Automatic annotation (TrEMBL):
GO terms for cellular component: cytoplasm. It is an enzyme of class 5 (isomerase). It comes from the Eukaryota. This is Ribose-5-phosphate isomerase. One of its GO terms (molecular function) is ribose-5-phosphate isomerase activity.
Length: 248
């Protein structure tokens, strides 16, 4: 129940004290199920009726609808305006609050909504906290790719020192690769544990997290990467999102 506790803590800290918030992003995965439960149970209906919730994929959309919350899509947000806050999970969190995300194959819309929010709250229990990305999440960095380019991307990742990158297979009942909400494939790219600071040693395949993110996003055929990080607030470069406010 540590995921549920983390979810209630994060909603108590970052939404309950702000009943004037009107636009909230909702991520994807199993922890976020508890975030929606916390929102529904901790905020009075009259406050909830003034709030609109923006999903990050099919599962997130279903969560919002099933909770009877107001649903709207990020393409309806006027250019230049931002959501007040976004809650989402993570697969791994390093001490600088860099994240690996995409275990649920929803990373592209998650990053769009995360970077469209003034505040990004990562809800991650103790199991996700790590000294360096890649030390406990061994499946690799999830990368959303155009199916046509998947093999080209695999080759480029190997050249960059990824340790046996793979196209994510479908689940039982789905022959072939996983297909995301956006009709794309996911490539999982394991690397040696990522350095938070210092320089990359590309010859040894040892990367600093920001430099790897900047290199991955440039590979032709890559739509988005499951590395969430920032340098200064919203101006994350490469594929970066702003740094999450807090990890729970
Ligand atoms: O796919 C994703 O990015 C999810 O948010 C994932 O990172 C967290 O999933 P979990 O809450 O089920 O552990």
């Amino acid at each position: 129940q540590s995921k549920r506790l983390a979810a209630f803590q994060s909603v108590t800290a970052h939404l309950v004290p702000y009943p004037h918030y009107t636009r909230i992003g909702i991520g994807s995965g199993s922890t976020v199920v508890y975030v929606v439960e916390a929102i529904s149970s901790l905020l009075p209906r009259d406050v909830l009726s003034t709030m609109t919730f923006y999903p990050t994929g099919a599962q997130s959309e279903e969560l919002i609808e099933a909770a009877g919350l107001n649903l709207q899509y990020i393409n309806k947000l006027a250019p230049g305006s931002l959501l007040d806050v976004c809650f989402d999970g993570a697969d791994e969190v390093d001490p600088a609050l860099n994240l690996i995300k995409g275990g649920g194959a929803c990373l592209w819309q998650e990053k769009i909504v995360a970077t469209s929010s003034k505040k990004f709250v990562c809800v991650a229990d103790f199991r996700k906290i790590s000294p360096a990305l890649g030390t406990m999440w061994k499946k690799g960095i999830p990368i959303e790719v155009l199916p046509l380019a998947a093999n080209r991307v695999l080759g480029e990742l190997e050249r960059m020192g990824s340790l046996s990158p793979k196209i994510r297979p479908g689940l039982p009942g789905k022959a072939g690769a996983i297909v995301t909400d956006n009709g794309m494939w996911i490539v999982d790219a394991p690397f040696k544990p990522l350095r938070v600071t210092g320089e990359s040693d590309r010859e040894k395949g040892e990367w600093q997290v920001d430099e790897l993110a900047d290199a991955l996003i440039k590979i032709p055929g890559v739509a988005e990467i499951g590395l969430f990080y920032g340098r200064n607030g919203n101006e994350g470069q490469g594929g970066g999102a702003q740094k999450p406010v807090e990890a729970y």
